[in-house]
């Protein structure tokens, strides 16, 4: 039985490879494993990468020495991350996780790469219902800081797609299989602008054009989704936030003088990995067995936080906090009540202060941060059911 707390206010005003026809620009092929190319670094990146690339990765149990060697590559650039992901796909799909074992059959998947307006290669993936199933709408995903739109989200997307939705996802620049320095956010606004740009193209695809379109943001992706909504308030039919990062607790927020120093340093050595980061896996996954599987997400960023990235995350949450009353979209907020990574009280703050006439907050008792990946199986299904039921009610 799901013991979630449910707060509602509703206004009365209310992976096979498939080739789908497309009018989009030619797609760039995703390379398979091949020898590492030499990297030509320019400017300050040369010094920073040389100093930062030496993190020793723990050996992954249950895979060959060859795969461990592949996983230990420097993942600063997208081409290397694509090779590593290609090497691990089969291993990931065989993990004893409900998202992989119980993934609905018949869902069609496709992936491709396109250049954005900044010239960066952006990785796309989509999942469609099996043929003959009427498509109800589009769900566009924004992943979190230590995540990608592949691995665990692969299973999540298949469940949502099997319920009649086209599910679309991109890796943010600098994350996953997209181009850019790994874990580096030069501008959070540019991150949001890239989401707006890429998903504007998705909304014009013939299979979903004219249908309801929803944003789904998880953790840092929740902050991205909120920024996207604030920049384009009429662009979406609803926003689903899972453990969103939308306000930093005061007891961990740097003082104003410290923030000024960090900001100054971020202009001098922006890509430097100077901000310590704890091993958050034990705080993110309540199910110990699932926590052990997180290591197989080999292209996720798990090193120290880059200096400018840290400053941009702090700035973004501050800006969202100051504009929270402008959040007007139909809103579903889902959060583990025992989350120690992003505070569920912040979701309560968002729920109480958003101007949305249609808003729902669900707090899942004892739930940790990864309520869609790291909880007991029945809880994962419960959260998925809550998302799908909310979407269905608005299509």
Automatic annotation (TrEMBL):
Residues of the Serine aminopeptidase S33 domain: 135-376
Superkingdom classification of source: Eukaryota
Pfam families recorded: Hydrolase_4
SUPFAM superfamilies (UniProt xref): alpha/beta-Hydrolases
Protein name stated in the entry: Caffeoylshikimate esterase-like
Gene behind this protein: LOC111317385
